[in-house]
Design goal:
One of its GO terms (molecular function) is diphosphomevalonate decarboxylase activity. It is an enzyme of class 4 (lyase). Pfam families: MDD_C, MVD-like_N. Its EC number is 4.1.1.33. The protein has 325 residues and is of the alpha+beta class. It has two domains: 2-171, Ribosomal Protein S5, domain 2; 175-315, 2-Layer Sandwich (Alpha-Beta Plaits). It is 37% helix and 26% strand. The chain contains eight helices and 14 strands. Strands 1, 4, 5, 6, 7, 8, 9 and 14 form an eight-stranded mixed beta sheet that branches. Strands 11-12-10-13 form a four-stranded antiparallel beta sheet. The N and C termini lie close together (11 Å). Bound molecules: (3R)-3-hydroxy-3-methyl-5-(phosphonooxy)pentanoic acid (PMV). (3R)-3-hydroxy-3-methyl-5-(phosphonooxy)pentanoic acid binds at residues 12, 15-16, 31, 103, 105, 137-139, 191-192, 282-283.
Length: 325
């Protein structure tokens, strides 16, 4: 009753922003992401006879009550599916630098979904794993698959049609994704809270819903044609639109800092000088830059020269989940 799995994190190009069901984690809109190499979580799960509760160890340390509860709530779903009654010991190693602004919850819940379901004796398809991972964190449903992935929002109330699908494998199209860390304070609003507040109070949210499925279509077509300019352009527009919806929330949610704007301006200048580079920003101050491999070094060096840039990490499209034991 033991298993170990590895999952990479992902970055959304068309964002998931807003839930239609908070408990089942069903999204208002479909989203598209790239699974990244290099930033991952490895998790082992063992269901044991002698445990009186679940144990969650992250990077060799026992975690706080709030974290333990999230994991136990997730394991309850696996226990219900498998009819296993035992508690589990969960051991996770996170190679996602939290300061890099990547959500470790995406790789974390994707790895946990695989390891816990296998340890409980379930043999789930990729689609079923994606739906299970979604129950931990929405973006995790995309990390089950490698490369370019779409999360189909689905229509059903119970969420059985809301899961990831692979659009293009990581081997089919290599581009560069640079994670740009800028000097910033600790973020005050989680993505969960930010999206909830936006859905409930922002007058701009209806504009998001009216246009996001069109953005999805443009991105899908760009991925199919491997049209970098079109994909980068729609990703940048979509990220700005997501942030615009938050500015209209009550109270407003603003994740950008001085460094965020410096990087955004720099990328727009690069583009004017003929280098195809685009940015996207999640619920935080850091910026992710998309560029072609042939321009990777040049874009990397130019970003490091900006006064508010602290570090730049280079990634490429990576693989989906794998079992290690
Ligand atoms: O899955 P969560 O709850 O970490 O939310 C992710 C929200 C964004 O990162 C802003 C967008 C996305 O699609 O990943």
């Amino acid at each position: 009753m033991k298993a170990k799995a590895k999952a990479n994190t992902n970055i959304a190009l068309i964002k998931y922003w807003g839930k239609r069901d908070n408990e089942l984690i069903l999204p208002m809109n479909s989203s598209i992401s790239i699974t990244l190499d290099g930033f991952y979580t490895i998790t082992s799960v063992e269901f044991k006879e002698d445990l009186k509760n679940d144990i969650f160890i992250l990077n060799n340390k026992e975690t706080e009550d709030k974290e333990q509860k999230k994991i136990s709530k997730f394991l309850d779903i696996v226990r219900e599916l498998s009819k296993v009654k035992l508690y589990a010991e969960v051991n996770s190693e996170n190679k996602v630098p939290t300061a890099a602004g990547f959500a470790s919850s995406a790789s974390g819940f994707a790895a946990l979904a695989c390891a816990s379901s296998k340890a409980a004796g379930l043999s789930l398809s990729e689609r079923e794993l994606s739906m299970l991972a979604r129950r931990g964190s929405g973006s995790a449903c995309r990390s089950i698959f490698g490369g370019y992935v779409k999360w189909e929002k689905g229509e059903k109330l119970e969420g059985t049609d809301s899961h990831g699908v692979r659009l293009l494998s990581e081997k089919d199209w290599d581009i560069s994704i640079l994670s740009v860390m800028v000097a910033s304070g600790k973020k005050k609003v989680s993505s969960r809270e930010g999206m909830k507040r936006t859905v409930e109070t922002s007058p701009f949210y209806s504009g998001w819903l009216d246009t996001v499925e069109k953005d999805i279509k443009i991105a899908e077509e760009a991925i199919r044609l491997k049209d970098f300019y079109s994909l980068g352009n729609i990703a940048e527009e979509n990220a700005l639109k997501m942030h615009a919806t938050m500015l209209g929330a009550k109270p407003p949610v603003l994740y950008w800092e001085h460094g965020t704007l410096e990087v955004m301006g720099h990328i727009q200048n690069l583009r004017e000088s003929g280098i195809p580079a685009f940015f996207t920003i999640d619920a935080g101050a850091n910026v992710k830059v998309l560029c072609l491999k042939e321009n990777e070094n040049m874009v990397y060096e130019s970003l490091l020269k900006l006064s508010s840039v602290m570090k730049v990490l280079v990634c490429h499209p990576g693989s989906g989940v794998s079992y290690l034991e």
